[in-house]
Design a protein that fits this description.
- The chain has about 140 residues and is α+β, with helices and mostly antiparallel strands.
- It has one domain (about 5-140): Hotdog Thioesterase (Thiol Ester Dehydrase, Chain A), CATH 3.10.129.10.
- It is built from 3 helices and 6 strands; from the N terminus they run ααββαββββ.
- β5 and β6 form a beta hairpin.
- The two termini are about 15 Å apart.
Length: about 140
């Protein structure tokens, strides 16, 4: 890899990890590859719904956090146009949720992604879904 490409990759990674929503969510970036991201967030009291389990909005946010990174990891500025989630299991205070987003198909403008959220360890799938991004082909880092 040339120095220019290595520098661009590092600048892009820094950009992707600097998302203010990551701080709000309390999330951590575990892995970034082209078209893929894996993140982690811990369920806290403020993430619970009135049933005493993690709110679907929090679980969906963990998936969307990974999706935002994965969908921009190819250095094209893209935004979500659709996210669909199915919820299979609940999560409780202290559970560490791992969100994953992986590109299934697409180009620099439109991308289709598979989303998953597990309890850390990978034994229990909490939610999964699909998502679509769109952009105008603009580079993030030039």
């Amino acid at each position: 890899m040339t120095n220019h490409l290595r520098d661009m990759d590092e600048r892009l990674r820094t950009f992707l990890e600097s998302d203010p929503f990551r701080e709000f969510l309390g999330g951590e970036v575990l892995e970034i590859r082209e078209g893929y991201a894996r993140v982690k967030a811990v369920v806290k009291e403020e993430h619970l719904n009135f049933h005493g389990v993690a709110h679907g909005g929090f679980i969906g946010a963990v998936a969307d956090f990974a999706f935002a990174i994965a969908s921009n990891s190819e250095n094209f500025r893209r935004m979500a146009v659709n996210i669909n989630m199915n919820f299979y299991n609940s999560a409780n205070v202290g559970d560490k949720l791992v969100g994953e987003a992986e590109k299934v198909k697409g180009g620099k403008r439109v991308g289709f992604f598979r989303l998953r959220v597990w309890k850390e360890g990978g034994e229990e799938l909490v939610a999964e879904g699909t998502a679509i991004v769109y952009g105008k082909g603009e580079k993030i880092i030039t």
